[in-house]
């Protein structure tokens, strides 16, 4: 079923008769459909996050149910060939990278945020499902890459983009002790990807946009999702313990940087590399 849907979304003959507002409307419609399809895992995961009662179900805690649900959806996507084994390996890496960050950020000396509910699948105060929130971002980028037939022009050398991604990740840990170099890293990334362009196909015509803009936009929507997650009490920041408050706008920049790091991992997938043109100057 989904395989047929993907074919319908991706394969369109060139329509030279479409112009003006009609072309805009159709391209915008298919752009939205492809975005929704790319968000399959992320969307289902966050819907489950909002629908599963805080008290759990059938004696199973909310966090444990979310872990069961996330693993089941990933297994189904693999079974129905909506993801390859290479992509699952990358998503597993996103989970491990995200869980390590969660474990550090919720540790006793840091306490940047917390998971208040009890669960059997908590390690060091972090439920295992938490890593899937990062895996969801990776899954979205992988699916969008295929559905939009994404190609990258003027990508920086892989070693330099990898170094930037590692520095971003390390800074999330070290800024508690050595100072926050987030904006220096953002400035470096701005120069690194200044010439990089994303080519994507919403319907039958290739469009382009700056890669940096895509990082910012995806980061913004993750920030909105994080606000909903804390509103439903799945996790909470120190300023939300007494009453809910919106997640600080500075988290938007953090998510944009994490999206950049996730993109770097996806860009190193073997079947994705042939769609990337690395800059030679």
From TrEMBL:
Judging by the UniProt lineage, the source's domain of life is: Bacteria
Span-the-membrane segments of this chain are 28-51, 123-145, 157-175, 181-200, 212-232, 252-269
Which InterPro entries is this protein grouped with? DUF817 (IPR008535)
Ordered alphabetically, the record's keywords are: Membrane, Transmembrane, Transmembrane helix
User: This protein is called what?
Assistant: DUF817 domain-containing protein
């Amino acid at each position: 079923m989904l395989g047929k849907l993907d074919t319908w979304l991706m394969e369109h003959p060139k329509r030279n008769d479409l112009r003006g507002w009609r072309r805009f409307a159709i391209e915008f419609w298919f752009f939205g459909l492809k975005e929704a399809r790319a968000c399959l895992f992320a969307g289902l995961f966050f819907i489950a996050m909002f629908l599963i009662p805080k008290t759990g179900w059938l004696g199973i805690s909310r966090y444990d149910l979310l872990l069961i649900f996330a693993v089941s959806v990933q297994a189904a996507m693999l079974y129905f060939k909506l993801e390859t084994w290479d992509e699952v390996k990358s998503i597993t890496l996103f989970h491990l990278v995200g869980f390590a960050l969660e474990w550090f950020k919720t540790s006793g000396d840091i306490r940047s945020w917390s998971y208040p509910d009890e669960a059997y699948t908590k390690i060091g105060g972090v439920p295992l499902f938490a890593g899937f929130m990062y895996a969801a971002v990776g899954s979205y980028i992988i699916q969008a890459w295929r559905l939009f037939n994404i190609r990258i022009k003027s990508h920086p050398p892989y070693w330099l983009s990898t170094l930037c991604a590692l520095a971003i990740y390390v800074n999330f840990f070290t800024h508690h002790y050595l100072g926050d170099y987030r904006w220096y890293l953002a400035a470096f990334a701005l120069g690194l990807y200044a010439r990089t362009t994303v080519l994507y196909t919403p319907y039958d015509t290739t469009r382009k946009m700056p890669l940096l803009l895509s990082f910012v936009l995806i980061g913004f929507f993750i920030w909105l999702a994080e606000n909903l997650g804390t509103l439903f009490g799945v996790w909470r920041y120190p300023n939300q313990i007494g009453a809910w408050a919106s997640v600080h706008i500075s988290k938007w920049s953090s998510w944009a940087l994490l999206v950049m790091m996730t993109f770097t991992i996806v860009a190193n997938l073997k079947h994705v590399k042939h769609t990337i043109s690395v800059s030679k100057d």
